Amino acid sequence: MTLNRRCAVDVFWNLVTLMDDYALELPEPAADGLPPGTRVCLPLGDERPLAEVMTAARRLIAAGMRPVAAVAAPEPGASRRIDRPLRELAGIGVRELVLLWPAGTSLTSALDDVTRVVCRCDPGRRGFTEIGVATVGHAGLNVGHEPSAELLRAFEEASDVSVAGDIGITLLTPPVRSVESVIAWEHSLRAAGNLFPVRVRLPETGPNPFRHTIPLLLGMAAAAEADPGCLISEVQFVLRGPAEPAAAFADDIRDGNFVVEDSEYGYRLSMLRER
Questions:
Q1: Distances from the Cα of 31 to the Cαs of 200, 206, 256, in angstroms?
Q2: What is the pTM of this model?
Q3: Domains delineated in the chain
Q4: For position 139, what pLDDT does the model report?
Q5: Are strands 96-101 and 130-135 parallel, antiparallel or unpaired?
Q6: If you average pLDDT over residues 172-187, what whole number do you get?
Q7: Average pLDDT, the chain
Q8: Measured between alpha carbons, how far is 251 from 166 in angstroms, rounded to an integer?
Q9: Beta strands of the chain (E only): which ranges?
């Protein structure tokens, strides 16, 4: 591996780390051609009946995948209503959950809902390891999070129950179209008091990931190199077509089968040829 500068080495390793435990958001629970252990999430834009979520999760588990179940967040005051879905999903071996809020829901409200769910339903005791926080739709990245006493309180209370309940909390972005928007969004979260990791949702890699996906990945890896406090830690590919090409691409990045160069035009990535 030949790299031009020390910072390119850092970007290389940041990119490998970013892809370490990627997830695939698929339109249907198909696992054909995917490596065992791949994290697979159903579309976050769809609210599906519990029976359908259970059927999809069973299919994925039988195929050796790690399903990430997406479930509508309960209304305030109705946290107990999610107790049955949690119990049944845990019973078939689901360990990761994404709670979905309607578009326009404030982060303060979503975090307060997560706090209530963890306190009242104890998902960590049921075997869940992580709860993702996401809103339906594509809006949100253009709106920063202004620091406020209420948002800081919500972050602190969610952090406290995360530790006490032995369950991780991750914030998911809407689908990302530009590096600048997601970096600004993450920075506004930190300024408001966030300490939770951020999982970035990237739209379809397509037949040529170099056109759009790689510049986004390089931009996020470079942001982490420039700002060690950056909380962007994971990637979730939002797919419309076959999952196998996206998984192969992600595996190559995760396994370090590429070179990063720091040129006068910015960072450039080249995949290594198969031997």
A1: 22, 18, 24
A2: 0.91
A3: 23-211+228-240 (3.20.20)
A4: 57
A5: parallel
A6: 92
A7: 88
A8: 29
A9: 23-25, 39-41, 66-72, 96-101, 130-135, 168-175, 198-203, 232-238, 258-263, 266-271
